[in-house]
């Protein structure tokens, strides 16, 4: 399964929540994103079938190695692009919103060039 912006956002959210909470559940994701639990359940089913997450009988959600790789890539892009835009003088809210859109469409090559340009390896 190739990821799309929606699934990447879910994976990134699971990663962020897993750093804050001992376990991640669908209701936590729904609350974090402001989505209905039913929408999150459908997305979790797709991510599970795609091999990006596992879900225990208790409903605890864990990233697989593949899911973690995608989530960490998106999170790194988000953090770096947000900080870079803020440093360029963009207000924090706009920078965060723009970074959230850019992180999904920027190529690996372009992102690596941005990192090199700003001195991050």
Q: How is this structure best described in words?
A:
Helix content is 70%, strand content 5%. The protein has 121 residues and is mainly alpha-helical. The protein has two domains: 5-64, Winged helix-like DNA-binding domain superfamily/Winged helix DNA-binding domain (Arc Repressor Mutant, subunit A, Orthogonal Bundle), CATH 1.10.10; 70-118, Iron dependent repressor, metal binding and dimerisation domain (Diphtheria Toxin Repressor, domain 2, Orthogonal Bundle). It has a two-stranded antiparallel sheet. A hairpin with a 5-residue loop joins strand 1 and strand 2 (61-63). The model has no long low-confidence stretch (mean pLDDT 94).
Please tag this protein with its features:
70% helix, mainly alpha, 2 strands, Arc Repressor Mutant, subunit A, two-stranded antiparallel sheet, Diphtheria Toxin Repressor, domain 2, single chain, 121 residues
